[in-house]
Amino acid sequence: MAVKFHIDFSRPIALFPLAGVAIYPHTADWIRVFEPRYRQMVEDCLRARGDGPLLDAAPIAMASYAGRDWKGERVGDPPLRKAVCVAKIVDHRPQPDGTHHILVHGFSRAVIETVAEPEGRRLYRLARLSPVDQRLGAPRRMPSLEGEIAALITQGELARMERLDPVRDWIRRGNIPTEFILEQLLILLARGDDTRYRLLAEPSGRNRARFALSELAHLRRLLDRAKESGAPGGRGFSVN
Q1: pTM, to two decimals
Q2: CATH fold for the domain made of 13-131
Q3: Which residues share a beta bridge with 93?
């Protein structure tokens, strides 16, 4: 889902912290919202659109908690990791029990500068954010990077991995921004929340691309060797 939208970073943005990293820019996921404070947050964000379309609702910063083992920067109480993905609600399904099912679509990496704790009727936190992406604007095509990705996922055992079928299709169509394709790959390839967070916090698209190419190359070697030896694939992946 490649969507262009401007995020106003001059205004505080609602914080929705989860146990781990849920989405990246250009990716989307369904989330069930059941806690009263976050139900209020969703309702306030939706109210901000007035009579406009859903994309006019206020953005949400998808954050993650800094657990006891987290050694990096943290902010707020309970503490959060500083890197977030600013998202918009692109589908909303209210439930009879007052909970919400929302489809959130990521738009921008950002870091938390300050946090405003709950106050008055507001049960959730707000944050002042700064964007961290080195390149802003509409997602772009990068044919050389697409060529490198295609060379890896269309050869050997990796060509049989069904999870990569959408990526092959997007590249074959030739009209999908490469940054969209890259973020989908990162969600697929990042193993463990620490790695997911590191890629969320990484401002350089070039470095994120290096990670994806390196992981694809490593995975292809593992699968090809596994086929030769008759052993199952490594790193928790299977061909399907």
Answers
A1: 0.87
A2: 2.30.130
A3: 101
